[in-house]
């Protein structure tokens, strides 16, 4: 067999081709990864009034929740979107309790839930809510631009959404929430 | 194998192989691009469809909200008709089959199918999985238009 | 306690991977030969530690230890034990732990049994394996710790996606993972060979069993996954070209190409650089596929959680490993000489053709999978489905199948078609007859037509390499090839038959109504509620009778899982030798009628049967290779022993 180094060598550049293709892939994916950086979907509704809604009560002992409850004026309050089947919701319960004890009014919306489950959940984790609406098909949740549970909205006295907190409120995030509530007061 | 002639011939044959391989791979790339241009199904919301109709033989996906009170089951018991809207425009949809369980009036839906010449969207498949873990990517950006409409409906 | 124990084992394994990399690298230098000696034992212990961590997680899941976040988020005390067990890898963290475990064990296995590679290449290979493992350990420990505790112990877990509560889940993802990660060995071998520049038949023979092993698992995993999607999703389809499916198909295509090119390298010392390249590409495809699935960059029916942070982390790993390997390839491959020559019409020529076609299909699938991303970059939203994938891949698969019929009959190095023409008369005749028959049947699409036409001829052609041989003396590896190629023909027949002859019926039936689907008569007897451990369901009692024969009961269900609340439909299957009846129960209409969706799918089972045969072929080949290697090893030992005695 003859020496193989004699084979044509114009394909030198071809050796770099796979690397080039791969770099193209990385660029593409980087683009894809960072363009929808709003994957923690920030609501387009921040700064806008709450959508109109009127939800029935989610438990026997607390009234339901309507958009008109928020427009009566008064101090800013929190609107917490939760569900009994959601683990992080249980994690943030102590923080919500603490906020409620500070005299902040917290309203809840239970997503895709059963009455008895909500009742059991609140019995277990404490009930910081003054009103709880039942949103059985996530209709109001989606209207508010919330894409998951738990999420907490700061609503000012005129019923305008001022801030959206995605995920559970951890203990170290309490000052942030309080600050946002103060901002909403102005 | 004997010396020189074999060497030249071998070189020649190697070249043929390389050329065939390159032609096949470049052909594959060109075909892929052509195929994707003609076969990828684009995502439309109802106002897009009203503004610029897709070809009747082109597969597209239509995303929007199922209008309240529009859902009808036809006498055969398996064909349903409903209207998908995005707050600006409405498109009637027909679907034959078992609907996903999360599919209800007022919910979001992505329908895969074709727009018939008479303006009805004939769906072969409905995706309605918008629970907290799975939101069709296209639906996410609809929230604003959706919001207005949901507002109107819940009153 | 178990959680902390598992975490400690994981950290230790990561540390050992670091040591393995360092010792392997230093072992290659002149002064560090002594360090090289510890690489093998370290690799073995590292794999065992990863296994311990994985077992710890399994125990936590089986005990439903809700203080561990992962368990609380993904399990539920009411879940049957087998699904608690399978739930271990039914989530992101658990599956990544499975990934590093398999990777560690693969490294251990290589360190334990591989004795054919020259020692420097071996060191480079194990160092490479450790380098890749290290990145995944870092990913696991820094961004997806499976053993993280909950700040507050919940009273109940959040459950597992009900779609995943199925026996399919217990076997299909781990099988695939063994395949994906098994390819890391081929990757490390390729890197080792690039570093030491020792590419040749001996290297190929050492690499081949590992590639075969990973490929068998991939084949079985894809087959099982396809069947799982078929009966669990209730859509009646068996392949959806979903990104998750494509992610498993792409490494398989690359590994199949590698398997064939490594044969050329082993037998003829040709295609050296190309084989190395494929070794890199195969595992790269595993990683790319995992990345695409795990980062949530492409939406998919398999709905994994979306997490850009983790996505970025894996992307960095990809950039380091794939980018690094391809750079190394570009720098070094020029000095890996091209190897022996061959004529276009020869066994090598056919295998090269196979490789080019497989690469083309790989490119088509990869491009189609990524295209939604490209389109998004240009501001359009698209989804790419069967109308693109089917014809485009068929364009390359069909010529490849034709060559598959001829290739094994050709001689190495140089041959002429004239020699094999006479043998191929029978399959060619079969193809012509089938074409006439199918055309006479009429009303069949282009692709099913091609499939039905080719299947019979291919089946016969795949048996031809056995002609004139003593069946008992035929090497096991040849049997493997024959069985695998026959499996391709069988699967092709199943696919074509399913799409050509399936009958679908969608009806709204009252209790007592009878519906005809193909040769079947289906009577709806009643619909009643039933309950399972964590679901309630409506179940239909259907009586199905084939061609007027005795009725068999089938029970499709519409299930509702209550934690988390999610409905699923459980299709009912009735299998006969010549096909399957597939029934799905829909909703109740207002007038008391029930929606039923029924399919008669002739010979659909051949698809998975063919897949199993392909896997079995791989297994036979693997056994054959290992047996002959062992024989050679023993013989060499005997010779050495004899020499030693004579020397005395």
From TrEMBL, chain B:
Membrane topology, Extracellular segments: 36-155
Stored Pfam families: CcmE
Major location category of this protein: membrane
Keywords: Cell membrane, Cytochrome c-type biogenesis, Heme, Iron, Membrane, Metal-binding, Signal-anchor, Transmembrane, Transmembrane helix
UniProt keyword Membrane present: yes
Compartments reported by the entry: Cell membrane; Membrane
Transmembrane parts of this sequence: 15-36
Membrane topology, record value: Single-pass type II membrane protein
Chain's role: Heme chaperone required for the biogenesis of c-type cytochromes. Transiently binds heme delivered by CcmC and transfers the heme to apo-cytochromes in a process facilitated by CcmF and CcmH.
Protein name (database record): Cytochrome c-type biogenesis protein CcmE
Source species of the chain: Novosphingobium anseongense
């Amino acid at each position: 067999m003859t020496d193989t180094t004699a084979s044509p060598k114009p394909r030198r550049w071809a050796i770099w081709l796979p690397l080039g293709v791969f770099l193209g892939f990385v660029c593409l994916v980087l683009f894809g990864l960072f363009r929808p950086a709003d994957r923690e979907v920030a609501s387009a509704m921040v700064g806008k009034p709450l959508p109109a809604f009127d939800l029935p009560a989610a438990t026997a002992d607390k009234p339901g929740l309507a958009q008109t409850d928020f427009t009566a004026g008064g101090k800013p309050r929190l609107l917490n979107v939760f569900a009994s089947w959601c683990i992080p919701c249980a994690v943030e319960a102590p923080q919500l309790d603490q906020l409620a004890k500070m005299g902040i009014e917290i309203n809840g919306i239970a997503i895709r839930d059963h009455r008895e489950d909500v009742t059991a959940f609140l019995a277990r984790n404490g009930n910081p809510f003054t009103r709880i609406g039942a949103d059985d098909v996530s209709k109001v949740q989606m209207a508010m631009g919330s894409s998951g549970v738990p999420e907490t909205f700061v609503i000012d006295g005129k019923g305008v959404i001022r801030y959206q907190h995605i995920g559970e409120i951890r203990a170290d995030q309490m000052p942030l929430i309080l600050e946002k509530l103060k901002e909403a007061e102005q | 194998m004997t010396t020189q002639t074999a060497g030249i011939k071998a070189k020649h044959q190697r070249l043929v192989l390389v050329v065939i391989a390159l032609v096949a791979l470049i052909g594959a790339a060109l075909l892929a691009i052509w195929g994707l241009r003609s076969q990828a199904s684009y995502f439309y919301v109802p106002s897009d469809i009203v503004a610029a109709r897709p070809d009747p033989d082109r597969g597209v996906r239509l995303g929007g909200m199922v209008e309240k009170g529009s859902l009808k089951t036809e006498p055969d018991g398996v064909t349903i008709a409903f209207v998908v809207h995005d707050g600006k425009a409405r498109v009637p949809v027909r679907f034959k089959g078992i609907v996903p369980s999360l599919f209800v009036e007022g919910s979001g839906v992505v329908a895969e199918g074709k727009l018939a010449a008479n303006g009805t969207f004939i769906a072969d498949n409905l995706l309605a999985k918008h629970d907290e873990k799975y939101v069709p990517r296209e639906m996410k950006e609809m929230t604003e238009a959706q919001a207005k409409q949901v507002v109107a409906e819940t009153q | 306690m178990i959680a902390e124990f598992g975490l400690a084992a994981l950290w230790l394994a990561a540390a050992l991977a670091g040591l393995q990399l360092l010792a392997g690298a230093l072992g290659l230098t002149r002064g560090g030969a002594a360090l090289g000696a510890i690489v093998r034992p370290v690799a073995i212990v590292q794999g065992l530690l990863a296994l311990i961590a994985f077992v710890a997680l399994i125990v936590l899941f089986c005990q439903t230890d809700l203080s561990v976040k992962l368990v609380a988020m993904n399990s539920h005390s009411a879940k049957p034990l087998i699904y608690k067990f399978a739930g271990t890898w039914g989530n992101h963290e658990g599956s990544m732990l499975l990934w590093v475990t398999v990777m560690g064990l693969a490294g251990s296995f290589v360190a334990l049994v591989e004795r054919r590679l020259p020692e420097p290449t071996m060191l480079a290979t194990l160092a490479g394996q450790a380098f890749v493992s290290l990145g995944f350990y870092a990913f696991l420990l820094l961004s997806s710790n499976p053993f993280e505790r909950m700040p507050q112990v919940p009273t109940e877990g959040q459950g597992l996606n009900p779609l995943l509560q199925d026996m399919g889940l217990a076997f299909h993802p781990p099988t695939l993972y063994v395949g994906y990660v098994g390819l890391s060995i081929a990757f490390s071998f390729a890197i080792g060979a690039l570093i030491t520049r020792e590419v040749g038949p001996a290297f190929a023979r050492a690499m081949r069993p590992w590639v075969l092993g990973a490929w068998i698992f991939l084949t079985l995993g894809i087959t099982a996954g396809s069947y799982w999607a078929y009966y669990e999703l209730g859509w009646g389809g068996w392949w959806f070209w979903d990104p998750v499916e494509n992610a498993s198909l792409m490494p398989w295509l690359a590994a199949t190409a590698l398997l064939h090119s490594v044969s050329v390298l082993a037998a003829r010392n040709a295609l050296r650089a190309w084989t190395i390249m494929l070794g890199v590409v195969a595992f790269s495809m595993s990683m790319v596929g995992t990345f695409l699935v795990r980062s949530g960059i492409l939406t998919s029916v398999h709905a994994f959680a979306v997490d850009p942070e983790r996505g970025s982390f894996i992307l960095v790993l990809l950039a380091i490993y794939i980018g690094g390997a391809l750079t190394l390839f570009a720098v070094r491959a020029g000095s890996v000489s091209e190897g022996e020559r061959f004529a276009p019409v020869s066994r090598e020529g056919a295998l090269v053709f196979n490789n080019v076609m497989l690469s083309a299909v790989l490119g088509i699938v990869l491009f189609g999978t990524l295209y939604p991303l490209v389109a998004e970059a240009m501001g359009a939203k698209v989804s790419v489905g069967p109308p693109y994938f089917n014809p485009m891949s068929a364009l390359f698969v069909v010529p490849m199948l034709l060559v598959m019929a001829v290739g094994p009959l050709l001689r190495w190095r140089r041959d002429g078609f004239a020699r094999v023409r006479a043998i191929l008369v029978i399959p060619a005749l079969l193809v012509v007859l089938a074409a006439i028959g199918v055309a006479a049947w009429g009303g069949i699409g282009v692709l099913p037509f091609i499939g039905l036409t080719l299947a019979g001829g291919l089946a016969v052609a795949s048996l031809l390499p056995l002609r004139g041989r003593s069946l008992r003396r035929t090497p096991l590896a040849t049997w493997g090839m024959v069985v695998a190629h026959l499996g391709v023909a069988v699967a092709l027949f199943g696919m074509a038959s399913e799409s050509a002859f399936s009958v679908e019926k969608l009806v709204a039936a009252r209790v007592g109504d009878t519906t005809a689907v193909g040769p079947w008569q289906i009577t709806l007897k009643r619909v009643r509620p039933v309950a399972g451990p964590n679901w309630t369901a409506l179940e239909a009692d259907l009586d199905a009778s084939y061609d007027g024969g005795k009725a068999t009961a089938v029970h499709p269900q519409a299930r509702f899982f209550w934690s988390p609340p999610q409905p699923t439909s459980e299709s009912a299957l009735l299998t006969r030798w010549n096909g399957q009846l597939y029934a799905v129960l829909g909703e109740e209409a207002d007038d008391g009628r029930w929606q039923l969706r029924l399919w008669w799918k002739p010979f659909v089972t051949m698809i998975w049967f063919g897949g199993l045969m392909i896997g079995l072929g791989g297994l036979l080949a693997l056994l054959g290779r290992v047996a002959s290697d062992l024989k050679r090893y023993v013989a060499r030992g005997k010779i050495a022993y004899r020499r030693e005695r004579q020397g005395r």
